[in-house]
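Quick one before lunch.
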Amino acid sequence: MNIIVQKYGGTSVGSPERIKAVASRIKTNVEKGHSVVVVVSAMGKTTDSLVELVNSITKNPDKREMDMLLSTGEQVSISLLAMALHEIKIDAISYTGSQIKVLTDGNFANAKIVSISTDKIMSSLQQKKVVIVAGFQGIDEEENITTLGRGGSDTSAVALAAVLQSRDCEIYTDVDGVYTADPRIVSEPKKLKEISYDEMLELARLGAKVLHSRSIEFAKKYNVRLHVRSSFNYEEGTIVMPREEMMEKFVISGVTSKKDQAKITIRNIPDRPGIAAEVFHELAENKILVDMIVQSTGHDGKASISFTVLNTDLDKALKVCEDIKTKLKATAVDNKKDIAIVSAVGVGMISSYGVASRMFRILSEHNINIEMISTSEIGISCVIDNLYAELAVKVIHKEFLEE
Ligand code: ADP
Ligand code: ASP
Ligand code: MG
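Model of the aspartic acid complex:
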């Protein structure tokens, strides 16, 4: 059976007209003889509206109930899409995550997929039905509804492609591919024909929300080729593929930023084995996601450690750090809210000189202060003030990617 897995994002199913357009696109594939499995997101900004609704009831929502609510958006779009297909004489059936047993861990709001049963999907496909699955949701072992993190429908689609052993997964969105920067920030970014899993993963992790980062991890692990393309036209998009299969390798293939982060520094903790482990163990125990970590070189038996967390986790993280300060006799815990991480990513960086110095120079020429620096094999990231995030992306893009 030649199974195609397609995912349509929020804007792609944002109105009745868009749902009908998606239905006719699916019809074309059915008529070509393909078995089609479709994953959809909630219509337009539905999920954001649900979050706002919660904010008007409580500042401290119960996590289980939050996932129960947020998962409803996708239930609306799957059923409407099934009806739109019925209208054009295509047999289709919609399923929620729990109906097809998308089993996840119990980590509400950021659950990880453990397994997916293919029985129901396969038997519906054998009955020549288009199968429409609600993205972003699953159930845990206790049958609580869970969600996979904002933007998680991409991950639902790739996980389905993996279990259905489909080599390709098409991600339909409101841009016609992956660009060298967010087209909402840079006026003329270049569209990439192809990008490696590693670069795409790094870009997504560092803020490019065109793909959910876990979807790329799945794609790489199960060798699913991702085709990111627009549901508004028929242009070829961007293929996300193994590094070895790529024709061109750029020094920098993308520039991105992640805003609304906070920086914490714990000053003068003992410089001996086990201290960093202890600090980050405490933060992990309190379910605080730590992003960038930089430790200063020790001096006089003391070292300082800086790291970033989400703005929204800052208060919780500071409480934990105050306890650590007392326990380890640190001299201070400093913090700064509203910072951004701006990054340049590219596999060609591995074999090029001077990329970091060019990036730092261009930021300094625009009077943007670098507060922390971190690097990986294929990426360089700088912590700067939130206010300059867009400017930094523009000038770094201009330096490396515009003639
Ligand atoms: P969907 O609802 O289809 O999942 P998203 O809004 O999650 O769509 O992702 C698409 C958006 O990602 C685009 O509208 C674009 O603004 C943004 N984006 C960020 N970085 C990039 C990039 N490098 N290339 C393309 N789009 C990007
Ligand atoms: N509807 C969810 C969100 O807005 C999932 C998704 O769109 O991928 O985050
Ligand atoms: Mg998305």
